[in-house]
Design a protein that fits this description.
Elements (H helix, E strand, L loop, with lengths): L2 E8 L4 H11 L7 E8 L3 E2 L5 E9 L6 E9 L8 E7 L4 H19 L5 H12 L6 H11 L2 H17 L3 H46 L2 H7 L8 E14 L2 E6 L6 E4 L5 H11 L5 E7 L12 E5 L39 H9 L11 H18 L8 E9 L5 H4 L7 E6 L2 E6 L14 E2 L2 E6 L3 E8 L1
Parallel strand pairs: 1-6
Antiparallel strand pairs: 1-2, 2-4, 3-4, 4-5, 5-6, 7-8, 7-10, 8-9, 10-11, 12-13, 12-15, 13-14, 16-17
Length: 468
């Protein structure tokens, strides 16, 4: 009979590689791998389109010996991809095939439940070859001997669930591959949608930069009072992420392959820019200044991040959506959500001293982010103790931006976007960073009139401070 050759793919995180090959042949691939099969022309078609099985020989990558097995394979009808091995069994007799499929199903269930590992299955391979583990009941007996009484209870539970299931292993594996391929298609569609969003965002940025070029000098001075237009250029961009690499702060932009950078030898601009970069959201529009732009290209260099819009379409759910159903990681202090708590007992001078003094052993030039983390415990105490106040005039002493998830640990709120923590002459408050949800700019040292104080969702701490 004519012999055929075929290259098939073994996916490292799927059943064949995690269960079948380790137990039956004593090996497992650490990453996706290709295997060359030599088989007779005769092929048996499976139940689903593209599914088939062949008896084939292959070279065991561990022992380099020729092995034989019944391969159940799926053709996914995709150009540029190899057919995928779903499972492989070693006993080729008709009775053995049924027994082996039962064994595969049980092994898979135990491995998914964490009761078996690939390493254990490879160690069990000699027992399988010697006939000591041939049927699923042999595996039960082996595990009962090796496991503790508490582990045996879990094993018995898995056995009972398997007996109720009555699902054919091959049917299950075929459906798994179809489901996984559907997920890959959905992921591909999401990537295409995001690429479209990035393209549209960069078109908007291009328009903003062109419009800025058309403004007269006086209008530019009014819009950007801190910029020297004889020497500097302002550019709009969309933030992707940042990293510190050697002497440089690198800011990567959406849709742009190379980052803009700032060297730490600019001792005044660098720490301010690093602080600003830490507060930008993925996908957020912002503007940056490049000094001496005739020498340093704005496509490669920046000096300052001078403004941002505080909002990103790429960053989770709307700010106003919160979840009160998740359990608290640890209980709140007694009375934390009691409206009739006393006013904060921290004075302006005391906070001023607190902000000026770094923890022992640290200098003021060290990482600003760690300083903010150190400060956060202090602000939590203030937010918890804050009482309602009807005043409308507030002076902002200090404000800083934190991730929305920060509040899950202390107030059981899940805000999906960054929030502002405001320390004022009247106490501690929060505000949104999203303009569409009422967020505005707060400047340290400035006094604001016509403000309002409200509780989160009208009944929970922390208190919000917003401009009317």
């Amino acid at each position: 009979m004519e012999k055929m050759e075929k290259i098939v793919e073994i996916f490292c995180e799927r059943h064949a590689n995690l269960d079948s090959f380790p137990l039956r042949y004593g090996f497992s691939f650490k990453k996706n791998a290709l295997l060359n099969l030599v088989y007779d022309k005769q092929v048996e078609q499976g139940k689903k389109p593209g599914s088939y099985s062949v008896v084939a020989e292959f070279i065991n990558p561990e022992t380099k010996e020729t092995e034989k097995g019944l391969f159940h394979i799926m053709n996914k009808f995709k150009e540029g991809t190899e057919d995928e091995v779903m499972t492989v069994i070693r006993d080729l007799t008709s009775k053995g095939i049924k027994t082996e499929n039962q064994l595969s199903s049980v092994v898979r269930s135990f491995r998914i439940a964490g009761e078996l590992t690939v390493k254990e299955l490879i160690k069990m391979h000699p027992l399988y070859i010697n006939g000591k583990i041939k049927k699923h009941v042999d595996l039960y007996e082996y595990l009962f001997q090796k496991r503790s009484s508490s582990e045996i209870k879990n094993i018995e539970k898995i056995i009972a669930e398997n007996e109720k299931k009555h699902v054919d292993l091959i049917d299950e594996l075929e459906q798994d591959i179809i489901n996984q391929d559907d997920e890959i298609i959905k992921l591909g569609n999401k990537i295409q949608d995001k690429d479209k969003q990035i393209y549209e965002l960069n078109e908007k940025i291009k328009t903003l930069n062109e419009q800025r070029e058309l403004k007269d000098p006086q209008e530019l001075k009014e819009s950007y009072p801190g910029v020297n237009w004889n020497d500097s250029k302002v550019t709009s961009a969309a933030f992707n992420y940042f990293e510190v690499s050697g002497d440089f702060l690198l800011i990567f932009l959406l849709g742009i392959n190379t980052p803009i950078k700032l060297k730490n030898t600019f001792i005044y601009d660098y720490p301010v820019a690093l602080e600003a970069a830490k507060k930008l959201l993925h996908g957020e529009l912002f503007e940056y200044e490049t000094k001496a732009f005739n020498v340093f290209s704005p496509e490669k260099w920046f000096s300052k991040i001078i403004s941002s819009d505080g909002y990103s379409t790429f960053y989770g759910m709307p700010m106003s959506e919160m979840n009160y159903d998740d359990p608290m990681p640890y209980p709140l202090e007694p009375g934390a959500n009691d409206v009739n708590t006393t006013t904060i007992e921290i004075g302006v001078d005391e906070v001023g001293i607190f902000l000026q003094n770094e923890p022992e052993g640290r200098s003021k030039d060290e990482d600003v982010l760690e300083r903010d983390i150190w400060l956060s415990g202090y602000s939590v105490s203030g937010l918890k103790k804050q009482a309602y106040i009807s005043d409308t005039t507030f002076k902002v002493i200090y404000c800083y931006r934190v991730e929305g998830g920060y509040f899950q640990l202390t107030f059981n709120h899940t805000w999906r976007k960054d929030m502002l923590i405001l320390y004022t002459d009247k106490g501690w408050f929060v505000d949104t960073t999203v303009k569409e949800h009422g967020g505005t700019v707060w400047e340290e040292g400035s006094t604001y009139y016509n403000c309002k104080v409200s509780m989160t969702k009208s009944k929970f701490l922390p208190y919000w401070l917003q401009k009317k």
